[in-house]
Amino acid sequence: MEKEKIYIIGAGLSGLIAALELEKSGFSPIILESSDRIGGRMKTDEVDGFLLDHGFQVLNTAYPEAKKYLDFQALNLKTFDPGAVIFEGKDSYIITDPMRNPLKIVGMAFSKVGTFLDKVKMFTLTQELKKKSNEAIFKEPSLPTHQYLKDYGFSDQIINNFFKPFFRGIFLEKHLNTPSRMFEFIFKMFALGQAAVPEKGMGEIPAMIRRQLSTTQIYFNSPVEKVEGKTIHLRNGETLEADRIIIAVQPDKVMKQLQGQFAPAHQVTNLYFSLHKSFFARPMIGLLPGDQLVNNIVFMDDVSKAYSTNGRALLSVSVLESDMGEKDLIKAVQAELEAISGIKGEYFKFVKAYTIPYALPSLEDLRYSIPMTECKITDHVYLAGDYLLNGSINAAMTSGRTAAEAVVHSYMPTY
């Protein structure tokens, strides 16, 4: 089996999990990665004494696949306090545990965000979803999330003040058009688990998976131009002959016949600023309701001290839609930060910005899993990636495992 030439295109989470599962069955795959490092969308840079994740991301500790492949203790996970800091102009208030234990929320604080009935409905929804399997959630009829929330009976007050800014930051789209299956799944995961980051950044997650590989080779700076049959054409003109190929990137990039099959992905711009100290002083996400440019903010060193080793606080800012140039965007964000904090905009020192065009796939038909047969597109080519299921770390891992299982199954004798 080691002589079988199995190539995996892409060293993101899906590709790494596929390699790990292939190794367990005795194969020695080769990963072709276009960049100079693993991780795909999950990378962490070290800049001026800061750790900068490529986009604000968290790991939910309730994800079943994450529990299977990751050692949470070794990652030294640092958790967020459940809830959020809501900013309305110069006012701010905290809602605690809105999903984990809705009935324990302090009434006065919650009344600014929603009504007493909202609190009851939050509790009811939490209990309903905890009893429902993940597979069952993804078999439910789907509505746009904003319609689902209205139909469930939540007030406009809590939809606008909490659900919209919180889930916009997860779905990376402003109007909560994302199918309600995804909302139910994420809501359940937050009710069961905790949002966390590895102590030394999200890049530690793919690094941990890579350390579990022993016979896999990874060829960096090896962008694939196209796949034709069993032949892989590299951009440098080389060709590779394969027995099996797992495409763990969006396949229209390497299979021209699939172009036009995918909706434009959701984009996000993540800006980092440093400040003399955090004005949160707690590991919590800050939400800005309404039509502001900024959707959410987090002082990353409040969550994990390792994110800053230079004595200054590190602020992560997420912007969903903007056609501004970088300089104008920085000024506009600094102005919004000044408005909510009372700290002069110029004191927020710009560190770096990441614009991530493909941050999340845009999907209508969301699924929790797929049968092996559905990730096979020819006798030799298989697909892996969260776009096959739903936009989550859990889905990326599931799809990598499923593709590997399909490849292994293809070598089994049939009777």
UniProtKB/TrEMBL annotation:
InterPro entries: Amino_oxidase, FAD/NAD-bd_sf. One of its GO terms (molecular function) is oxidoreductase activity. Transmembrane segments: none annotated. Residues 13-407 form the Amine oxidase domain. Pfam families: Amino_oxidase. This is Protoporphyrinogen oxidase. It comes from Algoriphagus alkaliphilus.
